[in-house]
Amino acid sequence: MYLVESKGGAILCMLVSLLFLGTWPAVMTLLERRGRLPQHTYLDYTFTNLLAAVIIAFTFGEIGPSKPNEPNFLSQLSQDNWPSVLFAMAGGVVLSVGNLSTQYAWAFVGLSVVEVITSSLTVVIGTTLNYFLDDKINRAEILFPGVGCFLIAVCLGSAVHSSNTADNKTKLDSFSSHYKDAPLGHSLPTVKETRDLKDSENGTIPANKAKAGTAAFLIELEERRSIKVFGKSTFVGLAITFFAGVCFSLFSPAFNLATNDQWHTLKKGVPHLTVYTAFFYFSASCFVLAIILNLTFLYHPVLNLPKSSLKAYLRDWDGRAWALLAGLLCGFGNGLQFMGGQAAGYAAADAVQALPLVSTFWGVVLFGEYRKSSRRTYALLCSMLLMFIVAVGVLMASSGHRK
After folding, report:
1. Which residue, among 230, 229, 225, 262, has the nearest Cα to 345 in the 3D structure?
2. CA separation (Å) from 397 to 136, 140, 364, 390?
3. pTM
4. Is this entry keyworded Glycoprotein (predicted)?
5. How many Å apart are CA 343 and CA 201, to the nearest integer?
6. What whole-number distance in Å separates Cα of residue 138 and Cα of residue 142?
7. Are 114 and 24 in contact (CB under 8 A)?
8. Which residues contact 64 (CB under 8 A, 6 or more apart)?
9. Contact 331/51 with Cβ under 8 angstroms?
10. Are the C-beta atoms of residues 118 and 244 closer than 8 Å to each other?
11. Cβ-based neighbours of 10, under 8 Å, separated by 6 or more
């Protein structure tokens, strides 16, 4: 079994994890904006997410001879370690629910703001729990100022969302005199008025495609996407986002308990779960719950999405490769986060919650978020990103070394 033992190796795991965990939400958002049903996308994602855990378990978890205190993956499957297994599976359950929730929240609130809010809740709640579970191996004088930086970034992110929403309202109000007095989402212009877009994945893009950031672009996006958001309350999206954030804040402490047994639930002489065995059980429970929920949502969709079926899902190959890629990115991202956390402390590993840095980059590049926005929005956006850079640096600097 291979273990990350150096601080430098732990930080490298966190950085790669940060890239992966900040990218997979952008891939999922891309597919929703292209009209693919989120139930279909999440089912594809679920299979490769589990596959990543299996690959990690049978590679890193099987390197070298098995030792009594450091058993390999296959050796540990037959041991009497069910209390720790249940903690790992509980972590997978809350992660699965959180990931499923954010897939709907991205449509309502936007990729960047959802990631900021969920990440902040994860840091404030999860990092504090991990700090005490890890017997305070992280330096508090550095760790908690880093948590404070995340809170400041959250405030800035909320301000970015408020400013950008006001910008978009101004654009739509000026698009047509019809919108001047009508609520957002009522009597949308026809497809002919806004020019139907063909995705580059499915065909050529017309020369008269609406430019990102314009009112026509916003309306075309609403017509094309699978989750319709115009005319719906923003509170729905925010409620889903905060619920997801609470779920995310609990999965890392649960995994911490699974691998380090701080509550002494294992029988005497039974070795702790290795990070690879725990991650396997964690991902397996995540997989089972995701399959159950998404098969249910195929026939009983939420948020007024159209009904689907298992047969329709199996026939839907449009964007499947992207969804499978998203599952691999998330799976390997979580695995690397846990590998780094086992070495440097899970509180420091929560620095990957600076993933809004990556998600915001993809949001701007891929989706045209904040295009043609006001100077105030740009100033707030830059301030938010700067604070996140400071936050991730401070949290990584707080990392200790597990004895």
Report:
1. 262
2. 14, 11, 29, 11
3. 0.81
4. no
5. 42
6. 8
7. no
8. 1, 2, 72
9. yes
10. yes
11. 4, 339, 340, 341, 343, 344, 348, 349, 399
Which residues, 6+ apart, have CB-to-CB distance to 55 below 8 Å?
none
Q: How far, in Å, CA of 96 to CA of 45, rounded?
A: 11
- Identify which of 337, 274, 332 has the alpha carbon closest to the alpha carbon of residue 61: 274
- For residues 229 and 222, the answer to whether their CB atoms sit within 8 Å is yes
Longest alpha-carbon distance in the chain: 75
Residue 283 CA to residue 258 CA, distance in Å, equals: 13
Q: Show the tokens assigned to 159.
A: 């301000």
Integer Cα distance of 170 and 131 in angstroms: 45
- Length in residues, the chain: 403
3-state secondary structure at position 94: helix
> Degrees (nearest 5) of the Cα angle 278, 281, 284?
145
> Cβ(157)–Cβ(359) under 8 Å?
no
* Among 259, 263, 179, 262, CA closest to 215: 179
Assigned token pair, 297:
């949502």
Distances (CA, A) of 238 to 37, 215, 233: 21, 23, 9
Residues 6 or more apart whose CB falls under 8 angstroms from that of 188 comprise 219, 222, 223, 230
Amino acid code (one letter) for 387: M
What burial class does residue 211 get, using C-beta atoms within 10 Å of its C-beta: 0-12 exposed, 13-18 middle, 19+ buried? exposed
The burial of 7, by beta-carbon neighbours within 10 Å (0-12 exposed, 13-18 middle, 19 or more buried), is given as middle
From first to last of its 403 residues, the chain has per-residue pLDDT tens of 777 777 777 778 888 888 899 899 999 999 999 999 999 999 999 999 999 999 999 999 898 787 877 889 999 998 999 999 999 999 999 999 999 999 999 988 888 778 888 887 887 788 778 778 766 666 777 778 888 887 887 788 778 877 877 888 888 777 754 444 444 444 444 444 444 434 444 444 444 567 777 888 888 888 899 998 877 766 788 889 889 999 999 988 898 899 888 898 999 889 999 889 999 999 999 999 999 999 999 999 988 899 999 999 999 999 999 999 999 999 999 888 878 766 655 555 556 666 777 887 888 877 877 888 889 989 988 898 888 778 777 876 776 555 5
Asked if 123 and 350 touch (Cβ cutoff 8 Å), the reply is yes
